């Protein structure tokens, strides 16, 4: 009998981005498990292309959360999960000298962001 999977968090995906996953993961490590507003501030201040793409995905996940649950407060959200997966590679022929050729690999990334509400700590 299949177990019903409990829904956790609010998700956003950005697929087929023309940037190497290695470059994006370096920036993703800065904002993983941080509060939503703090993560947006960090990503806005970084000058990298990957930071712009991550900012867009994180903002989208936050907007999904606020749209699906009107009772949520933006300050109570945090980045629960941030995955940067490898997408397909474009392979091009790179003509070299003396009749040789190399393969030029252009890598793509898939970014998955899950935001969730922080557990309320009250006495």
Concise account of the structure shown:
A hairpin with a 5-residue loop joins β3 (90-95) and β4. It is built from 3 helices and 5 strands.
Topology of this structure?
Blueprint: E1 10-17, H1 21-31, H2 36-45, H3 49-68, E2 77-86, E3 90-95, E4 101-106, E5 109-117
Antiparallel strand pairs: 1-5, 2-5, 3-4
Helix pairs in contact: 1-3, 2-3
Q: Could you explain the architecture of this structure?
A:
The chain is an alpha+beta fold. The protein has one domain (about 10-115): Ribosomal Protein L22, Chain A (Alpha-Beta Complex), CATH 3.90.470.10. It has 3 helices and 5 strands, in the order βαααββββ. The protein has helices spanning about 20-30, 35-45, 50-70; strands at about 10-15, 75-85, 90-95, 100-105, 110-115. A hairpin with a 5-residue loop joins strand 3 (about 90-95) and strand 4 (about 100-105). The termini are far apart. The mean pLDDT is about 95.
Instruction: Supply the CATH architecture.
Output: Alpha-Beta Complex
Strand content: 25-35%
| Structural class by helix and strand composition | alpha+beta
pLDDT averaged residue by residue = 93
Order of helices and strands: EHHHEEEE
Q: Domains counted in the coordinates: how many? A: 1
Please supply descriptive tags for the structure shown above.
123 residues; alpha+beta; Ribosomal Protein L22, Chain A; three-stranded antiparallel beta sheet; two-stranded antiparallel ribbon; 3 helices; 33% helix
């Amino acid at each position: 009998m299949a177990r019903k999977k409990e829904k956790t968090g609010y998700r956003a995906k950005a697929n087929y981005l023309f940037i190497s996953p290695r470059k994006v993961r370096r920036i993703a490590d800065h904002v993983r498990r941080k509060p939503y507003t703090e993560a947006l501030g960090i990503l806005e201040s970084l000058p990298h292309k990957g930071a712009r793409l991550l900012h867009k995905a994180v903002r989208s996940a936050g907007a999904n959360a606020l749209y699906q649950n009107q009772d949520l407060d933006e300050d109570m959200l945090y980045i629960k999960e941030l995955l940067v997966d490898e997408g397909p590679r474009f392979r091009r022929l790179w003509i070299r000298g003396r009749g040789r050729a190399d393969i030029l690999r252009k890598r793509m990334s898939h970014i998955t962001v899950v935001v969730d509400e922080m557990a309320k700590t009250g006495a």
